[in-house]
Amino acid sequence: MNLPKVSDMNDARPSRPNAIASPMIWPCGEVRSIAGQRIGIAGLSEVAAPGMLIECATSRDGCLFEVIGCEANIVFALATHTQGLRVGDRVTLRGHPQPPPTGRPGVFDAFGRPLDAHKSATPRCSFDPPTGFEKPAAQSFGPQISTGLTALNTLLPLAQGQRLGVFAGSGVGKTTLLRQIADTATVDDIIWVLIGERGREIADLQAYAARQNRRQTLFVATADRPAMERLRALETGLAQAAALRAAGRHVLLIVDSISRYADGLRDVALAQGAPLTPSGWPASLAADLAKPLEVCGRAAGGGSITAVLSVLVQGSDMDEPLADLLRGLLDGHIVLDRGLFEAGSRPAIDMLRSLSRSAEHVLTDDQSALLRAALSDLSEAQRISPLRDAGLYVAGEDARLDATLARAKSLDEQLRAPSASILEAFERLGKILAQKPQ
Predict the structure, then answer these.
(1) What's the CA gap between 136 and 374, in Å, rounded?
(2) In this predicted model, what pLDDT tens digit does every residue of 176-200 receive, in sequence order?
(3) Cα distance between residue 12 and residue 32, in whole Å
(4) What phi, psi does 145 have (nearest 5°)?
């Protein structure tokens, strides 16, 4: 069979993204094996390459495969689903995904296809999902982003182009904190990438986004979707963010959660036959996670992608391998503490275990001084807390220490309160820190 070259095939793509391609342009193959989500396909080994998409039109709902490897005359791919798929079904190579048009607000699946909240069936794909994006030239952090949260406006600043992780176990308020950031962040566009979430939570977030008078786009791959879709959801959302950044816009990319993206990377590595390290992750995990994260940042043209990613920490252990790896890749981390959450503190941020690496770049000298003074009081209060609980320290024994504890309590309450602006947040902290012992 004389098959066209891949370059010729992509050059001959239909001009409209939803057009149906001709079999003369798109090479065809045949399903030879089905093993879970791993599909063996014959007839495409001369033209297929990892990352290309293959479509099967003969399955009941239509499904997509993504090529993960080639061996002799067989191409191996991961499928979105295998319902209705049979050995002998004909498939069509769709080539590499193409960059998307500038995104519009709405809710989309991992391939950029619009989702109807009132229908459970996924529409058949009639265009290639986007993944075309490039790493921007190295840029420093941009101006600070106001979030409406005192802690993030002062102690843990968020700057344009920063990549900030929200680390917590399950049920400690990660999604609530992400919504609070999205509510008031001073950005042009907000893109949500929801990976491995429950369908009910997706519906709640869709209703929430519809109520907000902001440009919000959702890309969704629910918990029941295979690894291929979990990976593609982030790539699609990131490509849309890159397109908006290229237009000079400032984009907030919220990923919930990057941990389930890592789970997808592990599933694909196992399907490719790659061994796992003793920690249970593939050896390529660090590089595979760094690729999408390095796309975020500021562009020379003035636009930016600021990423806030939730990290699901197993057993609330901040030293487990994935959490430790991501702390090194990100530009800061917010740690949510279960004990604080159960005690009623909202948001349950552990101020002393959290860090923003943009602080030294975006804060003034006076603001940095306030920051150091606040951390000193909070640290002193944490040191004294076990002594008070054990009855080894009683209020009134040391006036200076009593004043420090009083300021630390006020600081903690203020840091969890909303603030209208960055300036207002620092003014409130300044008033608390100016209090002297009586």
Answers:
(1) 35
(2) 899 999 988 999 999 999 998 877 7
(3) 28
(4) -95, 125
